[in-house]
Known about the structure:
130 residues; alpha+beta; 5 helices; globular
Amino acid sequence: MATWDDVRRLALAPPETSERRSRDSMQWRVKEKGFVWERPLTRADHKALGDAAPDGPILGVRVADVGVKEALIADDPGVYFTTPHFDGYPAVLVRLEEIEFAELGELVLDAWLTQAPKRLARQYLEASPS
């Protein structure tokens, strides 16, 4: 089970990241581009999801493309889901209480790499141990 403290620590680990509050929710950004964010469900989300709407904390995560999003949801629908608001958009919603810390770390780093400027991402990868 992951926590918001875990998200904060993982999101702020790569270079050039920042944290800010917007509309009473936290967002983590790389060079002003959001890559993970707190995403409470809206009334429309609850209506669309019905009884399947989760109760716990929800993390929004940017992914490389819609194919990655669909694969994550298909692989582990107990952790990953979406709402009609995100149809056609490369982001997935995560039940924070259901994801393991190691998987969250991979997901957050992939989101950062997706949103970081190419040169910054390349420098980070070159400096990271294999």
